[in-house]
Amino acid sequence: MQIQQISAHPGTVPGQGAQREVEVAKYIDVTTCIGCKACEVACVEWNDHPFRETTFDNTYQTMPTTEWNYYNLIKFVEHERDGNFMWLMRKDQCMHCADPGCLRACPADGAIVQYENGIVDFQQENCIGCGYCISGCPFDIPKFNPKTKKVFKCTLCSDRVGQGLEPACIKACPTGCLHFGTKSDMVALANTRAKQLREQSGFQNAGVYDPQSIGGTHVIYVLHDATQPELYGGLPSNPQIPPSYTGWKWLAKPAGLVMAALGLLAVFFHRVAVGPKLPQPEEPPPAEAQPDTIEAKRKEKP
């Protein structure tokens, strides 16, 4: 797939050929999700991660958050609306931001890439384990493997998409709440569904979650109440890349190069004006003082 951005490289970087350059997106309709977790199982199987035993902690949720070897998690939230109880279930994974904070924060050359179709992928062989991508993500998605000292996250099945297939989780969903296609098609589908919820199901605040504060995302949600995304397991209403990664990172490297150049110029002009500093030869002690010194040492001996 064609590469659009690479970590530690300002601007865009051309790739070598492409199989699918059109922007893609995953559509998630939380209003039709039944919490079956088929997508979780498909994700674990496709990525060849081991299944593990978990303990019941008074929730149907498999674990509190995604992990370095568990990219996809259904979040279960109990919610009361107009005196009635309802479940809010949201599929949590990497959002594949158009302006990815993880890529901005990463100082390792080539550890994170963004393809022209919008997918943000991690290249673990280039990861230095600094963890900056974790703090740069407004969705708290990348996770650190303490054994390998590498960071992992959902890749939107870039290997499958590169071969013209849809992500494994999409293939496994039994209710049709997950779809995959071009970004424009998925946004149109989401808007149509949100309109249907407002007009026919009584959810007056139904809408599409595709936050523009990070340039939009390549995973979009249809929510019962788009005015309160925090209800859905802590989905941020206005995700932002930390300011420390939006300013200084792109200034630090040029500033460092300028300072290094000034230092070299200073050394050059000093050499031209003053010349090299040569070591001064040590002066031998005066000849007349040598006998006295020898006599003093003789007297010190018993």
Task: Considering the chains and any ligands shown, give keywords for the structure.
302 residues, Alpha-Beta Plaits, alpha+beta, 2 domains, 9 helices, four-stranded mixed β-sheet, three-stranded antiparallel β-sheet, elongated
Radius of gyration: 30 Å
Bulk shape = elongated
CATH architecture type of the largest domain: 2-Layer Sandwich
**Count of domains:** 2
Number of helices: 9
Distance between the termini: 89 Å
Q: Reading side by side through the largest sheet, how are the strands ordered?
A: 9-2-11-10
Low-confidence stretches: 15-20
Counted beta strands:
11
User: What share of residues are in beta strands?
Assistant: 15-25%
N-to-C order of helices and strands: EEHEEHEEHEEHHEHEEHHH
Q: What's the CATH class of the largest domain, please? A: Alpha Beta
Q: Specify the helix fraction band.
A: 25-40%
CATH topology of the largest domain: Alpha-Beta Plaits
* Global mean pLDDT: 87
- Biggest sheet statistics: 4 strands, mixed
What structural class should be given to the helix and strand makeup?
Answer: alpha+beta
Question: How would you sum up this structure in a few lines?
Answer:
The chain is of the alpha+beta class and 302 residues long.
